[in-house]
Specification:
mainly alpha, two-stranded antiparallel sheet, globular, 8 helices, single chain, about 220 residues, 2 strands, 2 domains
Amino acid sequence: MLRSQRGISVYTVLSVILFFALVFILAVPNFFNLDKEKNQEDCINNMKQIWVGVTDYMKDTNKDFTGDIALLTKTPKAQDPKSKYLGGLRYCPETARQKNEYIVYGKYVPEQIGTEIKHNYGVIVLCPNLAEFPKHMIGKSFYENMDPTQLQNYMIEDMDYIDKETGSNGARKLELMKKYIEVWKTVPDAFTQRKADSNALRALLFPEKFGAIQGK
């Protein structure tokens, strides 16, 4: 058997080298966040938890949520003061070290129906890295068991439309998603318009597509 000058076999040396090489190969994806599918899944789960936290907060306050996620980690739940609306701050795994906050907005719309008031809550949560990772989106299926309000359903449908129209163009997707949030922030009767016409808000985002239709 081949041995080095100190009596260690060459095969032993090779085995040690191969062992550390294997450990390195297995560790690299976790160290450098190279597992894209897991990162995507973790990011979406983060957004789902934020969505739940914001929605619960809005149901207890009946007002818009402007995006201060840290507020949710400090505010006790109305129904359970020992717990907070969000257990802690979360970041997209792709850039967790940079601590880029998720983009969040919640719209509250009270709707008078007869003598009663129907409370509508709609929450949008976006990954800050959507431009680079266009699949970092909460899917429609998530909302099926969340008892969404009519407003939330409008948002779900519109965001799904934007998602399909932009496809893999993450930069365009993020641009339009942000613009969609601005519509809800700045258009006073956005809910009424959307209720009357399913394409009303989409036309503001895609004027080149809906302009001809509206002109007829």
